[in-house]
Amino acid sequence: MKKMLVVGVSLLILAAFFGAMAMSFSFGSPKMTDMDDYFLRNGQEQTGSNNECTAVVFDFRGFDTLGESTVLFCAIVGAALMFRKMQGGEEYEDE
Amino acid sequence: MLWNLPFITVVILTLIGLVTVLLKKNIIKVLLGINILNSAVNLFLISLGYREGGVAPIFTLAPSELMVLPTPQALVLTSIVIGVATSALILSFAMILQKKYGTVDIDKIRRLQG
Amino acid sequence: MRMSRIVRIAADILYPAVLIFGLYVVAHGHLTPGGGFQGGAVIATAGALVIVAYSYKEVTGWLKKNVLMGQEVIGLFGFIGVGLLALAFGQVFFFNYLANSGSLFGIPVPYGINAGELNTAGVIPLMNFAVGIEVWGGLTIVILYLLSGLEKEGC
Q1: Structural domain tally of chain C?
Q2: ipTM for this prediction
Q3: Which of A8, A72, B47, B85 is deepest in the core (most CB within 10 A)?
Q4: How many domains does chain B have?
Q5: Which chain A residues have a beta carbon less than 8 Å from that of B92?
Q6: Does some domain include residue B105?
Q7: Three-state DSSP class for residue C97
Q8: Which subunits count as partners of chain B given 3+ CB pairs below 8 Å?
Q9: Is residue C82 a contact partner of residue C123, using CB atoms and an 8 Å limit?
Q10: pTM (2 decimals)?
Q11: Is the residue at B34 inside a domain?
């Protein structure tokens, strides 16, 4: 009973704090658009692609895509590594 | 108040995700809470870059030349892929834990097996 | 356990169609919505379709795990190699050296709304293919490994 009371009060405080922050944003008119105006005006001539999102992901911000591919690769190698001892056989023994 | 509806949804989803991660005892439910937190952050990033009356930032047969901002969409693409990688890793951990301990209750998986 | 005959024949007919649609989404990443990651996820669902229709023992005879792992490695190193090749042309890492030139993918595009042409956008289609191959191999391997626990229960 006491645990539900503590959880409820802390949730109310968090909701009030986040709600006050959410009300201060304006939906539909972003404040600073200088970088994106440059991307939209010059992106088609400099990269030659019609799709602006792909031009931003692969050309203007290519390092983020490099890091993301590496994270995906490492996660899949880690997930495949967990199943190796189950199907192989015995444990490794130090000699 | 109704015109800020995406941001209110973000707040509700964040609170649901936080409660699920902190209070549940099953590993699969904790993983679902992590996914809900991921979705809340993605929705917040996307709705920061909306322009009133804008279309998708693609120049092939576009209806008008007023477009939304393309940078938040690039960041959200990266975030979704990282969420997929996290979910795959935690699910494989859950399978191995179930084989070793016989249960997925995190209160009973307490000791390191020697 | 296998599904009935109708399900197996429908999966046989749908499998190349899903593959071709996924490769279309990857290849036209610079003209329409899509790209490397989205197209790779579409192709990986073809593997899930085949696993649902046939039993797990038959599918591991076709989709070998070593080939898929090699595919993922080739994808990642291809992506880095395309970026490193720009150093041979005297520019910085990840520079778009094929855009607005005369060669492979390099027709210049003026500003404005047009109907889209496939031969544009420089290095971006090569990067799309590399990332698409990586995501295809990676997601199919995750599906195969997560379903490997079923075969021990006699399912």
Answers
A1: 1
A2: 0.88
A3: A72
A4: 1
A5: 79, 82-83
A6: yes
A7: coil
A8: A, C
A9: yes
A10: 0.89
A11: yes
